[in-house]
Structures are given as C-alpha cells and as structure tokens.
Sequence to fold (469 residues):
Amino acid sequence: MRFPKSLRLLSQVAVVAILVAAAFFTRDRWMTAFSSPESDAHAADSPAPVEEPKVLKLSPQARKNLELISKSARPQTYWRTIQVPGEIVDRPGRSDRAVTSPAVGVVSEVHAFPGDTVRPGDRLFTLRLFSEYLQNTQKELFSSTKEIQLIQEELHRLRPLADKGAIPKTQIIELEHQLRRQEAIIQAHRQDLLTRGLNPQQIDDVSDGQFVSTVEVVTPPRVKDREKLVTIQQASFQQGNADEDGFAFEVQELNAELGQQVQAGQLLVTLANHSSLYLEGHAFKREAPYLEKAAQNGWKSSVEFAEDEPEHWPALEQSFEIRYLSNSIDEESRTFDFFIPLANQSRSYEKGGETFVVWRFRPGQRVRLHVPVEELSDVLVLPSAAVVREGPEAYVFQQNGDLFNRIPVHVRHEDRLDIVIANDGSIAPGLFLAQSAAASLNRVLKAQAASGMRADVHVHADGTVHASH
Fold:
C-alpha cells in the first residue's frame, strides 16, 4: 500500500525533530565522550578572574620596616606656593663697612687681621702722618690759639683805659672783632682735625703746641638702622665683653700693608657684620604677578636653607616677607631678583685671648623660597609619599588595625613636599591615613592579589568566610 507523498514528508520531519530533542537532552553524555584530555587539562589550569585588589594586610613588623605612620585626616586651609631658587647675599650699606685713611701717611702698625673680631672704637691701624696739609692745619690751630691769648691780654690791658676815655672805644671793638674771627678759625681747624681722625685730647695737645705725628685709625661706630629689624639671637659659647646687643665687626680683608704709603681716602680695611642679610630669589618674568601680589599683601614665605643644621641653633623667630622686586632682568639667566630681609644668628668663642664670631647664615648659601600665591580652603593635606599614582588614578591608604584599604582620591595640587586632596566625600574626616610608603603598600597589595591570597576576608570558627568589617 503506497502512502501519499505529503504524509511521507511529514513523517520524516517528525523523526528529525525526535532525534534533535534526544541529542539536546543527552548532550552531557555524548559531549564528554568527544572531549579531548588536553582541553580538559587546559580548562582546569586556567585561573579564575582576579578581582581588583583593594585591601592589604601588614604585620606589625612590616609596618616598622616601612616606618609607617598613620594620622587622622582633617580638612584645613592650604596655601599653594611656587618654589623659587635663591641665595643669601650681603645687604648693601649694612653688611660691609669700608674704612679709609684720614690723611696721607705711612702704615706703621697693623692691629687687626682677617678673621679678627673688632668692636666700635678698637684700633685697626697706626699711621705716621706724612701730610703737609695736616701739618699746616695743626700749625694754624696753634697760631690761632696763641693769637687769641695775645688779643685777650691786649683787651685786658686796654679796657680800663677805654673806660676812662684815655683811648677810643673803637679800638676795643676792633680787638673784640679780631677775637671772634680767631675763635671761628679755631673751631674750623678743630673740626677739620676731628674728621682727619684726631680725638679731642690730641687736638687740645695741638693747641698747646704738641703736634701729632701719628694717628690711630679705629673701628667706626654702628650705623643706626632706619627700620626696625628682628633682634639678633645670640648663642655664645662664652660671654665676652660685648656691648649691650653684642654688635661687632669681623675683619674681612686688609687692603693696606705694613710700611705702605696711603693717600687720604684710600681704602685700608673692609669690615663685615652679617647680622642683617638678604634672601635673594631668582624668578622668571611669568612669575612676576604672583610675587607682586605676595609683596603687596604681605604674605609670608617659607624658606629651606641648604647646608643648615637647625638642631644646633635657636629656632628662627622671624617672618619672611618680600621687601621689594627688582625692575631689571639679568641678560644671561633671563631672571629678575626679589629680596627678603633675613636677621642672622651668631655665637662667639675665645681662643688665645681673642674673640671669634661664627654666623649661622653666610652670603653665598643656597636657599629655596616657597612664595604663597593661592589659598585653598577645605582640603586635605598629606605628605607627597602618602599618595601613589597609577595612570590617571591616585590612591591613599586608610589604616584599620593590620588592614590597609586603598581609596581613590582627587588631587588638586602637589609639589615636592605636599599633596592637596579634594574633600569630596571620598575620605571621611577623621580617618587614619598612611603618611608615607604609599608606593610600597601598592606593590604589596598587587603581590598579595597575584598570589591568590585575599587580605580582605577572614574565616570564622564555624567555617564561614566573611569580608573584612
């Protein structure tokens, strides 16, 4: 019996559908039979995907090895600064003092040498006078003094006669005029000799006929400052016979030798006193607006002194404000200078009966100036070593016992010392953050994650596993 063609086609479709359904429901059996051992071993060796590490665990010994310190994070105000290189320089008109010869003479004695400490009034040189002008001035002073004595004797003799009418009074008046002229001449000569280095006692001796053949060149007095500066902090090893504020000069350079003939006004010695110095910064022209604003507003800068040992000196009790900006640019470095006053510190010691002074800051010493340019409010400030970067991301580490949680943060500003983090809620105020070794912590975190050991889980006694609390 032959079936219709359509019925045969329908039965074939039904058979195929039954075979497909049977293959689907028995796929676990026949797929295992056709799978190769190599593919199964490869699937077994493939590691499970590793989650991004966030927490690491450190032992107390590891924290000590890293010298790790954690501090509470608190919002604060931070001044953004620019760093400008500079150096310490002498303050013109105050640091150095030149002493010149008062007259033509020959250096017969030298009383102070480079490195010696001298105070106002101490002897520096003895000059044997070789000045015709000075000798003539002394002679004129002596002659005028004797002339006054003669005029006074003549007035004493003639006044009684003039009172009796024996001689005209005009003669007395003429003698009085001569007396006043001689007194004016004497006053001028005395002042001239004072400026030449003679003291009042020597000038009195010249008036009596004892001419001066030598003159002492002494340390000049201290010039009073027009503006009030910070008092010099003393840290003397020994108490010397200094004046009330310990002011003294140091002989910096001898400019005349023993036996040398010197002219009036010639430089004999250069004295130095480094109590008042300048911090000279070297800035580029693009930084001028920042420096001008800081100078106008009186913003205080901070200073890093190179080759300084602050533990051996008293604390610096002074503020550093820009006094003025230079209006010229150096042709070679293309920088312009600005100046900040610096009150120096000193101490003294005695050796061989002489006193020597040691200054804390010296001209030529390098400094780094941090000039404030912008105020950042409500920010978190951390040391630069407390933040680690990975591409565009920046992380800090929060400490919770032995665990350190890595937290992404937004950096608003950073320099060589500090990093300023935005207070955007990523770090709750009061959290304890690691203050250093962020790069080392990040490497340890990645190493722990690569080893498959998760530091952010722990096992309870009942065998259950929980994340860190």
Notes: The first strand starts at residue 55 and ends at 57.
